[in-house]
Amino acid sequence: MSFREVFGREPEVTASAPGRVNLLGEHTDYQGGFVLPTAIPQRATVSVGRSGGGEHRLHSANLHRTLTVPLGERGSDFARYVIGCIELLGVTDALDVYIDSDVPSGGLSSSAALEVGTLRALRELYGLGQDDVELALIGQRVEHEYVGVKSGIMDQMASSLADTEHMLFLDTRSLERRVYPFPAGAEVLVIDSGVPRTLAGSGYNERRAQVEEAARLLGVPELRDVTDVAAVEALQDDLLRRRARHVVLENARVLEALHADAGRFGELMNASHASLKDDYEVSHPKVDELVALLQADPRVYGARMTGAGFGGALVALVPQEEAVDIADGVLARYSGQGRRVVP
What we know:
CATH topology of the domain at 3-177: Ribosomal Protein S5, domain 2
């Protein structure tokens, strides 16, 4: 169904934003670290029109659901993301909102794409002056204040600023950023494992609390300020030591990857997955299975989970023109259900 079929008229504005895949730099952005995402072709498209009533009507084409939220209330499910954007921009009108997204949920920032797409539509509708960085920061506030996920800034910045042709290097403390080409001769392969996950119901907020405690014990504002991993080994608590070790080494991997060839970049991805699996403990057996199948293919430079973890997607660096063949072979041997390549 279209906006017209749901609401009986045409929308006033339509905007969109892409999902993202993170190549390196996982679980570092809420410790002021470095990340290296790129946009994916899939996007969340948001159409909006003023309704003149006393409630918001929000329709998800993907979920085949329409939610009605009275003005002043936050609603539930996907409504929280949209209402957060509306309220944080100071919009007081009742709105009709139509969402059509092909960004897979789980690891590819479908929520950030929805937030940035909604914020872009509202910016256009009301002629607002926020730039793309300000929209990303508002999207992060939506996660914190309306969804209950204490996320870092990477997802919203990538959805707001990244493109599909480059890697976006982002310093999540200063928000300084540069674009880099992909390693020569390589392209990115993304696979959805078919394992669903939810951030708020997972260990995401727990992991954030653990690394904050590790930083406190090490006497630094954030683990970004630790550059010698030997300092981490002084932590007495084994759990905190492993969590902190991942963050410190992951930052180092991102910085090295900026000028690495495809072979070395892939090795860094493999090391990142091992760290996320063993030290940070945010992977999943089905994701590990897919990663192992990819890493066993001699053509694959490297592979790892991507996103917050506990299911979701994974990413691999592969030779150009070979992604489809590699993916077909791996998925034929994978025992999971609902998996698919994200083209």
